[in-house]
Amino acid sequence: MLTMQASLNDWSSASAATPKLAEKMLQLYRQEGLEGFLDVPYGFAALAYNAVGDNKRAEKYAAKAKEAILMKDGVWSPNLGIWNELLQDSRAHWSFKRRM
């Protein structure tokens, strides 16, 4: 999972990150029983989809990441702002079409 996260967090032009990798990481979290920490793979999925221009799926996963953070960490979580920003305007978010 750490290798997947490192790949998805690599924003260089040589990055191997894809929405498919993000979906695989999400599936792995579920298989390992880490439902209480789904904000992480949901967030990576949101960014991965936004990075290839699929802002509808990005918004879907950003909303799921936000919901998971609110349940786990509450409104004081600094990561909540990331998903609020993406949900406000996914096309204006820094990640939009970053990996095209």
What does this structure look like?
With 100 residues, the protein is mostly helical. It has one domain. The chain is built from five helices and no strands. Helix 2 (19-31) packs antiparallel against helix 3, helix 3 packs antiparallel against helix 4 (55-72) and helix 4 runs antiparallel to helix 5. The radius of gyration is 13 Å and the shape is globular. The two termini are 24 Å apart. The mean pLDDT is 95.
Reading the helices and strands in chain order gives HHHHH
Indicate the mean pLDDT: 95
- How many E-type strands? 0
Helix percent reads: 55-70%
Count of all domains: 1
Radius of gyration: 13 Å
- The structural class is mainly alpha
Distance between the termini: 24 Å
- Which sheet architecture does the biggest sheet show? none
What is the overall shape? globular
Task: Give the number of helices.
Answer: 5
How much β-strand is present in the residues?
under 5%
- List unreliable stretches of 5+ residues: none
